[in-house]
Amino acid sequence: MINVEGLSVNLGEKEILHDISFSVKEGEFIGIIGPNGSGKSTLLQTLTQWNKPSAGAISLLEKPLDSYSMKERASLVALLSQHMDHSLGQTVRETIQLGRYAHKRGIFQQWTEEDEEQVNEAIAWLKLQNYTNRAVSDLSGGERQRVAFAQTIVQNPKVLLLDEPINHLDVRYQKELLDYVTTWVKESSRSVITVFHDINMAALYCDRLLVLQGGKLVKDGKPEAILQQSLIEAVFETKPFILPHATLPKSQVMWTPSSSYLQEETSLDTTSITITETMIHYHTKKKLRTISSGITGAGIGWHSHFVNRHVTPYYDSEQPKEEMEQFLQAHGIPFYDAVSMMTAVDIEDVAVKKVEEPYPMLLVATAGLGDAIDPVTRPCRKEMQNPGTINLWIFVHATLPDEALLQACMTVTEAKVKALHDLGVKDSETNTIATGTATDSLVIGATQTGPRLPFAGTGTEIGSQLAKQAYEIIAKAVGNRG
User: Fold this and answer.
1) What's residue 107's pLDDT?
2) How many other C-beta atoms lie within 10 A of the C-beta of residue 373?
3) What is the C-alpha separation between 325 and 333, in angstroms, rounded?
4) In angstroms, how far is CA 405 from the centroid of its own chain?
5) Integer angstrom CA distances of residue 186 from 62, 137, 224
6) CA 159 to chain centre
7) Given the DSSP bridges, would you call strands 159-163 and 77-80 parallel, antiparallel or unpaired?
8) What pLDDT, in 10s, does the model give residues 314-334?
9) Distance from first CA to last CA of the chain, Å, rounded?
10) Closest CA to 279 of 300, 299, 294, 298
11) CA 297, CA 309: separation in Å to the nearest integer?
12) How many CB atoms lie within 10 A of CB 134?
């Protein structure tokens, strides 16, 4: 669709773009990212011929871009900017109709049925039916951008250029506009090139990203290839953390403030554990980085409340998470900040242990073995005859990346299995060694202010400590049951 070869642009005596080459295929959504002053908008303007190249060539549909007349270019290439001019007081319909100008020929430029059909389709698709007779100046920023996009659609270009189109929109309108653009690109086989300041939005929506720095193209690739810590840190001169999106196979960038006020120390203190008839509650001053299989707070996150709630052996709820959230709120604990689990074990049988070497660690465990199982041998069964649960909390004063948290889970689980083996705990149905119960729960939390430990497998010092302490606290919790 578009091919750029060796493009350089001078503005006055200053070279703004230097030796840039890339191509855009039909149906591609391309994003341009880079720090301020890197040449992003200049590149976009050059693609419209607003700026003349000092070197290199731009071709559109295999013809030099400058070989097209101004009107021909207007019918092939459209620009959607951050702001649209609404000073003339036109209505929404009148503004959209202007998009058909590029397709008019001759002296007498009559409005045709095709023109009317194109305008009506754009209005319907972008849900502007209730706005057609309103002045554009009366609309919100997001609504104006929809009108501008509708005008672009009826222009029916082969290539759409967007210059930071979402900068002044709230999140709803940012997403809405980019959803519309993506759908239009894929369904009409057009091409889009967009300048972004928001790296995460660019990574979510674009097929490829062009990274500019100092007027040069430093990288051209898929978002997952671009969102690499070393590249982003080099280009934007600040340290990022690259994480996967929760529901899409996309990467996202997280930034960490440098302020020391946000990095306060926290201690792992047994005095912060509260034990009542209804629960064991541990509250930390600072949130811990956690990995958990709890009812609330499951997965990887940040939490400062940890709850092991006592329930009867006959507890049954079709919506245990919602019921647990209500319980937490009733006790003044924010459910969104809590890792919670349940046990039918008597709360007073809890085992608590604190160690200082080699890494400060706090462990809390309750253990009921009423329905200990061997999951390999015993067939799946929905109902438990005599419910039991092993709930284990381990908090470490260290900095553990997510991969180390996952390795810690494996290490601790192996230690739990070893403890049950040595205690001779068996599955009552199969008479084979049990590995746990059907409802065991685990949370591992790290302060993220101690020493950085990249791994937590059994071959590491922290892994060895985790295994030993998990083994001992589980054995103690089982022993407390008598």
Assistant:
1) 54
2) 25
3) 9
4) 19
5) 21, 31, 20
6) 29
7) parallel
8) 888 889 999 999 999 999 999
9) 76
10) 294
11) 14
12) 15
Interacting residues of 29 by C-beta distance below 8 A, sequence separation 6+: 181, 182, 185, 191, 192, 194, 205, 206, 207
Determine the Cα–Cα distance for residues 58 and 8; give it in Å rounded to an integer.
Answer: 11
Query: What are residue 160's phi and psi, to 5 degrees?
Result: -115, 130
Q: What are phi and psi of 54, to 5 degrees?
A: -90, -15
At 213, which amino acid appears? Q
Preceding amide of 358 cis, omega within 30: yes
Answer whether CATH 3.40.50 is correct for domain 270-480: no
Sequence letter at residue 301 = G
Could you give the CA distance from residue 335 to residue 305 in angstroms, rounded to a whole number?
Answer: 9
Whether this prediction's pTM lies above 0.85 is answered by no
Q: Transcribe 104-155 into DSSP letters.
A: --SSS----HHHHHHHHHHHHHTT-GGGTTSBGGGS-HHHHHHHHHHHHHHH
User: What residue type is assigned to position 333 of the chain?
Assistant: I
The token duo for 67 is: 């070989």
Residue with token string 């996967």: 244
Q: In what order do the strands lie in the sheet with 63-64?
A: 14-24, 2-11, 55-60, 63-64
- What is the tens place of the pLDDT at every residue in 373-419? 888 887 766 555 455 699 999 999 999 999 999 999 999 999 999 99
Closest CA to 300 of 437, 401, 229, 411: 401
If you ran DSSP here, which 8-state letter would residue 268 be given? -
The DSSP code for 85 is: -
Counting Cβ atoms within 10 Å, is residue 246 exposed (0-12), middle (13-18) or buried (19+)? exposed
The dotted CATH code for 2-255 is: 3.40.50.300
| Distance in angstroms (rounded) separating the CA atoms of residues 469 and 61 | 68
The CB density around residue 260, as the number of other CB atoms within 10 Å, is 7
Residue 206 gets which letter from DSSP? -
Q: How far apart are CA 180 and CA 173, in angstroms?
A: 10
What's the CA angle centered on 101, arms 96 and 107, to 5 degrees?
Answer: 145
Q: Are strands 299-310 and 279-292 parallel, antiparallel or unpaired?
A: antiparallel
CB atoms within 10 A of CB 115: 18
Spans of all domains in the chain: 2-255, 270-480
Report the sign of the C-alpha dihedral through residues 91, 95, 96, 101, in that order.
positive
